[in-house]
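Support reply, case 0932

Customer input (verbatim):
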Amino acid sequence: MSLHALAQRIRESRGFHHKTDIAGVVASLASGLPNGTRDLAQAVALGDDCAALADGDGYLLFAIEGLVSDFVETMPWFAGYSSVMVNVSDVYAMGGRPLAVVDALWSDGLDPAALILEGMAAASNAYGVPVVGGHSNTRSAQAQLAVSIMGRARALLSSFNARPGDSLVMAVDLRGRFEDPYPFWNASVGAPAQRLRDDLDLLPQLAESGLCDAAKDISMAGVLGTALMLLECSGVGARIDLDAIPRPDQIDFERWLSAFPSYGFLLSVRSGHVDEVLSRFSQRGLACAAVGKVDASREVMLTQQGESALLWSFHDRAFIGAPAEVEA
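Our regenerated output:
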């Protein structure tokens, strides 16, 4: 497959479509406000993994994740586990540490609800984050699950801080497996709880030490969709080298590009800090590499084995509709 064809297939992926839908939601919400998206950004810039509200000498972080209904229906235990895991990841991606989660759960009967809640409890124990309440309805015709989290950060990692000249750095735990048929790369279930917590704590340590101020966790749109969200928020572009992306052995590369890893982050790092950031992840047995260079083009180019192709131009189309001119 040519690189141009690969870029087209990625643009047409389910994960990309889920993210581009956000732009329509933002536009609909902003249409009812006198100053549009500027009013949405008054409290916190739209596009980060969490809302970050200044509070004393730090920030309160709030986030919520809803899980797709077919996933909740077919894999209720892992859906429950993932609902906590992805929220925890959002808080750490902002340079914070989680405090507690609450859930909203709909199910057709008590048995499916029990499996979902067992999964949530397992993740709560693994990550050391309590489930402190929520809402339930066990008389629903369809399974639905959403979980919200609160955290706190002393220093922020933000989607709005990438700068031309930065290196894009990908950090991921390759010690996992795909949860077929979904694109979820599971390096969490069964891993030592303390290792999971210490690996995640690298993110706030980087923020607090001043080694990094821009990051996102790799989401349903995979590493490339996550890069688009980060770059759009910061009003920049990048060249991304697919050959440099860390990957597991014997895994289809196109599938890997769309993977949603249980531990995966994309950071935008100033040139003088790249080596130290790479070292901190590698010391914990995590795969980490500089995979691209941020520039001022507002275009995202892919390169692979001497070939290049345009993945996205923000001049032509928004990705999630984040107001890049507003800083966090």
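We compared this against your earlier run and they match. Two observations from our side: The mean pLDDT is 91. The domain at 3-37+157-313 is CATH 3.90.650.10 (Phosphoribosyl-aminoimidazole Synthetase; Chain A, domain 2). Please reopen the case if you see a mismatch on your end.
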